[in-house]
Specification:
The chain is 72% helix and 0% strand. It is mainly alpha-helical. It starts with a helix and ends with a helix. The radius of gyration is 18 Å and the shape is flat.
Length: 80
C-alpha cells in the first residue's frame, strides 16, 4: 500500500495489498502464492485483463499530455 500500487491493485482479484513495514504479512502472501498454482493462475489472468482494460496506450498518452500541459500552465503562471 505505497505509492501508485493501490491504483494498480484497486481490485482484490488482481493482487493483494500489503501494509507497509509488514514483513510477516508479506511473507504470508508470498508463501500462499508459492503454494497455490490455481491462485497464481487466477490472479495472473485477472491482473493481465485489468492492465489491458485500464492501462491502455491511449490513457497513458492522455495522462502524459495532461501532466505536461499542467506543468506548462504552472510554469507560465510563475513567469507571468
Amino acid at each position: 500500500r505505497v505509492g501508485g500500487v493501490p491504483e494498480l491493485l484497486s481490485d482484490s482479484d488482481v493482487g493483494e495489498l500489503i501494509e507497509p513495514d509488514s514483513p510477516d504479512q508479506l511473507a504470508e502472501a508470498i508463501l500462499s502464492s508459492a503454494q497455490d498454482a490455481k491462485l497464481r493462475q487466477r490472479v495472473g489472468a485477472a491482473a493481465a485483463k485489468h492492465v489491458r482494460e485500464h492501462f491502455t496506450l491511449e490513457r497513458a498518452t492522455n495522462e502524459t499530455i495532461r501532466v505536461i500541459m499542467g506543468q506548462s500552465s504552472l510554469y507560465q503562471r510563475r513567469q507571468g
